[in-house]
Design goal:
alpha/beta, ABC transporter transmembrane region fold, four-stranded antiparallel beta sheet, 12 strands, 66% helix
Length: 536
């Protein structure tokens, strides 16, 4: 910006030398113009390089913060932030924050050169300097007056986009069910309403942006007209020579660049503030779990020592003895899901209740220790994009001693024929969420992954709901063999799983019955009713 601002001075001297017929000075000043032009070109390349670096650094660092926040929230993320909102943050807000930092270098150059040129114009003629001094604040003031309304409209647009993105994510996740229910028309009408809100919000934003763009052209244009008129009057009165007049005109033309940069920066910062506010709202989310209490690192038990204790949920009265296969059943699927979250400490119980493992409260143990001791596989567990091998044997699961091999875990989950049918076997690359597999195939591979992890306490939520009865019977038998001596908790309504369990707990807000499958069939009518409904 400085090299561009110096060009009018050198150009004016060259014109003055040409007007007075001094060829040597004309050549010298022309060489100066060439040198400044080459330097300005090189400096422009470096400025652009730095602007792109600022953009990429700020955008990627913001993206990293969002990812860290998602990792920190873990299973709490869906409760705090909709999937569509996360997608909008990554697709839109990160880019807007990056563009805000993109313009900072040019804005700094515009401020410095604007002040420098104004000072030179004051030295040449106070009238020129006064016009320049008024033009900058007038431009900034008019732009700033528009930023408030523009920001409000951008926030409304951003909220409308977030809502529509959430609806789109929901329909993609449930597309198969939606088609089965014939709900395409209903979704289309709902999405049309959301899209209409976006269109209205974008039109309102565009109207204010158009006003801002008009002011960007009107105010600097008025400044240029004023300088041109003053220069023409001074030349007419003989108070300005040709070189000085060219310098003033060139300065006036150059000042349009920083004034336009002011407008660009104002729009970028307005959009960036809206985006930053949305990102900060997500980053401020905290886990719902209470803070860890007590237990110094030296006093912490090992996962195997911890798993030797009895797992108790005082909210429901569930008591799980170590080393056995326990089935928990209920007519309320949501109650089973909530129990699984409490047993794995993905959620804390009500204030008057507690989950204990042996002598320890789960809330008093570090989350890392709880995760290493208790693995919860919920009904929505999914596969990740990557090879089958990387899904079945994640690097993070290598901390458990005496884990079963991948082959044993695959056989126990009856997934060997799935893998043998895939091109490349374990090296086969699965798409996102394992979409190329059926629901039953995905469920068996998820079970194999859980068995391979070898957690001391394994909590499975409906692990065989998508497989046929014969496969389920084999899976149950292999599950008992593979998990012998380790605690396995199955939350299910499957008669096969409950028949093979050491203990079955019947849950109706609290545990209302406990015993083996056959004992409960003989003496517990609620259990029989539950089984009859499941079989029918």
């Amino acid at each position: 910006m400085g090299s561009l601002a110096a060009l009018p001075l050198v150009l004016g001297e060259a014109v003055e030398a040409a007007a007075q017929r001094r060829p040597g000075e004309v050549l010298a000043w022309s060489a100066g113009i060439l040198g400044l032009g080459v330097f300005a070109a090189l400096a422009g390349v470096m400025r652009h390089r730095r602007a792109v670096t600022n953009y990429l650094l700020s955008a990627t660092r913001t993206q990293q913060l969002i990812i860290r926040c998602a990792t920190r929230l873990g299973a709490d993320l869906p409760r705090h932030v909709a999937a569509g909102e996360v997608a909008s943050l990554s697709a839109t807000d990160v880019d807007r924050i990056g563009r805000t930092f993109d313009v900072t270098g040019r804005f700094a150059g515009a401020i410095v050169t604007y002040l420098g040129v104004t000072a030179v114009l004051f030295a040449m003629a106070p009238a020129f300097g006064l016009v320049a001094l008024i033009g900058g604040p007038l431009t900034l003031g008019s732009l700033m007056a528009c930023l408030g309304p523009l920001g409000r409209r951008q926030r409304a647009q951003r909220e409308a986009v977030s809502l529509a993105s959430g609806q789109a994510v929901d329909v993609v996740a449930g597309l198969r069910v939606l088609r089965g229910l014939g709900g395409e028309a209903m979704f289309a009408s709902r999405f049309a309403v959301a899209a209409a809100r976006i269109r209205v919000a974008m039109n309102r934003t565009a109207q204010m942006a158009a006003v801002l763009s008009a002011l960007e052209a009107l105010v600097p244009g008025g400044f240029l007209v004023a300088v041109t008129w003053l220069g023409a009057r001074m030349a007419e009165q003989g108070r300005a020579g040709p070189g000085e007049l060219v310098t003033v005109y060139a300065f006036a033309a150059f000042l349009l660049v920083p004034l336009a940069t002011f407008g660009e920066a104002a729009q970028s910062w307005s959009a960036g503030r809206v985006a930053a506010r949305r990102v900060l709202t997500v980053l401020a989310r905290q886990r719902e779990l209470g803070a860890v209490q007590g237990l110094s690192e030296s006093a912490q038990p090992s996962p195997s020592e911890l798993a030797a204790g009895v797992l108790v949920d005082t909210q429901t009265g569930v008591r799980i003895e170590p080393g056995g296969l326990v089935a928990i059943t209920s007519s309320d699927a949501e109650a089973l899901t909530e129990l699984a979250e409490r047993l794995g400490r993905y959620a804390d119980p009500s204030p008057e209740a507690q989950v204990t493992l042996g002598e320890h409260w789960l809330s008093a143990l570090p989350l890392e220790l709880v995760r290493e001791t208790i693995m919860v596989v919920d009904r929505d567990a999914t596969l990740l994009a990557g090879t089958v091998a990387s899904n079945l044997d994640p690097v993070s699961s290598g901390s458990q001693p005496a884990r079963p091999s991948v082959a044993r875990a695959v056989r126990a989950a009856q997934a060997q024929e799935i893998i043998s049918g895939l091109e490349g076997g374990l090296s086969h690359v699965l798409p996102e969420r394992g979409r190329s597999l059926s629901g039953g195939q995905r469920q068996r591979l998820v079970l194999a992954r859980a068995l391979r992890a070898g957690a001391p306490i394994l909590v499975l939520e409906e692990p065989t709901s998508a497989v046929d009865a014969y496969t389920e019977s084999v899976v149950v038998e292999k599950l008992r063999e593979l998990r012998v001596g380790r605690t396995t908790v199955v939350l299910t309504t499957s008669p096969l799983l409950m028949e093979c369990a050491d203990t079955v707990l019947v849950l109706d807000q609290r545990v209302v019955a406990a015993g083996t499958h056959h004992q409960l069939l003989d003496r517990e009518p609620r259990y029989r009713t539950l089984l009859e409904r499941e079989l029918s």
